[in-house]
Amino acid sequence: MSTTASVSASELAVRCIRIMADGERSDFEAVVHPDAVNREGDVEPPECRVGGPAGYYATALWLRTAFADLAYEIHHVVANGNLVAIHSTMSGRHVAPFAVYTTAGVDTVFPPTGKTFAITQSHWLRVEDGKVIEHWANRDDLGQAKQLGWVPPTPVYLFRMARAKSRAKRAA
Q1: In the prediction, which pLDDT does 3 show?
Q2: Less packed terminus of the chain by CB within 10 Å, N or C?
Q3: Which stretch is the leader sequence (predicted)?
């Protein structure tokens, strides 16, 4: 019997959210199902769009690269069978370019501002065979954008965004 088999769906879902901030690849292997799907992957880099622990870990690295001191404060957890809803606050400091993607490639790049943010999120996770197999999220993206100075953008920041997007496209 694996260690995650004795863990409740709620505990497993909370662990999956928390390891986004500081978990190792092995942590993702322990809690994420090999067939897991992240329904938020469409705006993430291509390496995040793969299924299973590899995709979830790539998402964590994408977030950690852009946001230092990444943390999740869990406020409420509600479970109904194998579906778990988590209300949380994600916080961090914007220290590196943060790129948002479409299926065609890089869409927008936000150069680092050095500013901190704290935004509420709700995560919905489905558990199967003792591991997370599906994830959806609702985030306060506008609140994050305002806190980090992305909106309303200054002319100088718009120029920095265009330059960062050009660099990201060349790197891809």
Answers
A1: 43
A2: N
A3: none
Length of the chain: 172
Could you list the mean pLDDT of each consecutive 10-residue stretch along the chain, which spans 172 residues? 63 98 98 97 94 97 98 98 97 97 94 98 97 97 97 94 95 85
Please give the pLDDT value at position 105: 92
Q: What angle do CA 161, 163, 166 make, to 5 degrees?
A: 110
Q: Where are the domains of the chain?
A: 3-171
CATH architecture label of 3-171: Roll (3.10)
- CA–chain centroid gap for 9, Å, is 20
**What does the H/E/C string look like for 79-132?**
EECCEEEEEEEEEEEECCCEEEEECCEEEEEECCCCCEEEEEEEEEEEEECCEE
